[in-house]
Each structure stands twice: as C-alpha cells, then as structure tokens.
Amino acid sequence: MKRTQIYLDDKTHEFLARESARRKLSMSELIRQNIRLTMKHDARKMLSRIENAFGAWKGREFETDEYIRNLRKDRKAW
C-alpha cells in the first residue's frame, strides 16, 4: 500500500468525518472503498460497451487489401 496526501475542502472533510464515525471506519478506508467502487463501475461500463459493439460488423463484406489500398491511394508506389 502506498501513502498519499490529499486536500479536501471543509465541507467534504466534515462529511467524511461524520461518515467515518457513523460507519466506524477510518477516513482513509472510506476513500479507498469509494475509489474501488468507481473502478468497478468503470470496468463494468467498458465491458458493457464492448458487448454492445460485438457483432456490429457481422455480415459486412470487407476486403482488407482493398481497404488499405484506398487509404494509401494518395501515395506513390516506388
């Protein structure tokens, strides 16, 4: 585990202190838990987007060589 320092405005610090007392957890643990939740949410969102995109090109005719030639049509072959 790495040690770090953060700056909080008064309102945020007061909220964190109240939650810490209410839940009987350190302020550091509350911060770590919320970061982990955010990381899980982001990972789920990314996986959901990948799943939604799956099959998007299904049934399309796609010739790789032709596609690359079209991309490079402004270049001269030496």
Q: What is the compact description of this entry?
A:
By secondary structure, the protein is mainly α. The chain has helices spanning 10-23, 27-53, 64-71. Helix content is 63%, strand content 0%.
Please, could you describe this protein's structure?
The chain has 78 residues and is mainly alpha-helical. It is 63% helix and 0% strand. The protein contains 3 helices and no strands. The protein has helices spanning 10-23, 27-53, 64-71. The longest helix is centred in the middle third of the chain and has 27 residues, at 27-53. The termini are far apart.
Write the layout of secondary structure elements.
Layout: H1 10-23, H2 27-53, H3 64-71
Order of helices and strands: HHH
* Gap from first CA to last CA: 56 Å
Helix percent reads 55-70%
**SS-based class:** mainly alpha
Round the mean pLDDT to the nearest integer and report it.
89
Oligomeric state of the chains present here? single chain
Number of helices: 3
The strand count comes to 0
Our estimate of the beta-strand percent is under 5%
What is the overall silhouette? Answer: elongated
* Computed CA radius of gyration, to the nearest angstrom: 25 Å
- Poorly predicted spans: none
Largest sheet: none
Task: Provide the descriptors you would attach to this structure in a database record.
78 residues; mainly alpha; 3 helices
